[in-house]
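This protein record is not my work; I was only asked to verify it. Take the sequence as given and treat only the tokens as open to question. I have pasted the whole thing underneath without changing anything:
***
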Amino acid sequence: MGHPTLRFLGGVREIGGNKVVVEDGPDRILIDFGPSFSPVWEQYWGQYLQPRSSSPVKDRLEFGLIPRIEGLYSEDALAGSDLKPTDPGFQAVFVSHAHLDHAGHLNLVDPRIPVYASAGTRQLLSAIEASTFTRYGEHDWRTMPYGDPVRIGRIEVVPLPVDHSIPGASGFLIRTSEGTIVYTGDFRQHGPRGAETRAFVAAAAAEHPAALVTEGTRAGPDPRRQFSEEGVRSGVDALLGTTDKLALVSCYPRDLDRFATLYAAATAAGRSLVVSLRTAYLLAATRAAFPNIPIPLPGESDGLYVYKRPKSRYFPWERPFLDAAVDAPWVRAHAPELLLSLDMSHFAELIDLRPDAGSPFVRSMSEPFSEDDLDDQMFRRWLEHFGLELHQYHASGHASGKELEQIVGEIAPANVFPVHTEHPEAFVGWAKRTTQPELDTPYPIG
């Protein structure tokens, strides 16, 4: 019936948007299904102009933002499209982790197709749905215990944990009739679970894989500084030890490791950490799923407060935290005792908080790729207006180019396919063969 094949429907010469099809005879699965960070999206859509909910597939197909493929999309999502509903053309979708660019298009998927994810990823997706307007759709959800193979006809998928900037992340060993495909998902070695990534790399090498599909977010030019999670902690420790003002920090809202780091740093400095209502809900909703992460719990952990923004209406998921929540006057009165987590979407709170000039603001997230980043310009204007001092301490969720080269060499695949990168050419020479994939092109395995 021919060789098993790999086909890439996204993630090609772009960050995010991984959509990898594995076929072996009559069996076909999809690995990850989310939007990319392609500039094409911003050319046609934006904050005030979104694809219509009545024709989500049609509107995205118009600009090539999702693949034109039968047997994947639900009948409702196909409304108005020239693609017609058919029987499912995939036997399963496997999700590597809960970031939007890997799971954000699940709401378009035919609910008859089972969706596999780790227990931690499934819990995170549920918590995100409950506390945001993001929807992943109704599915036959199936959780994957790490190390337990999932058999889909001739294809066997073995999920293994990897370290990333969101917990519950998985890499996959995908065994076909003619060799193993290793899929890294997004991963790193320098985070608090770096040992999991190293174990995954060792397991991948032991397979003597026919193909390695690896992310390459930081391959090629990358002038940004490299911090480990311990480095972030050291930087925040030093900063809190030299100021008697309100300290502020902004980080990715689902980076639970970072909140554990910030809580530990605040506690060590004799301060309390203040988080948003949404963060409080996420911490509470996911704590049980990640017993190995020291996630602080609202209402239980000393030195953890929840900030209540003034609103005309609070969502049901916010209400359990309201009675004990603190407000802007309370924060102003206790400023030297606090480390306040403030997302950019909540920057208007600075007008009420009135931090002293010279108060430190830690950006604990990626630096922008370019100087003309509009969000970064707005961010800096707010800091300049209030006289806040910017400090950058962030541990990337992705392996560096040097680490990627070492990992590819250790796994030693017969062929490496770089995805989730703008610089696939950086991988040339790292393996016996490097294939810079093209969209919707089948590549034989074996």
The chain is about 25% helix and 20% strand. The longest strand covers residues 155-161. The domain at 5-221+397-444 is CATH 3.60.15.10 (Metallo-beta-lactamase; Chain A).
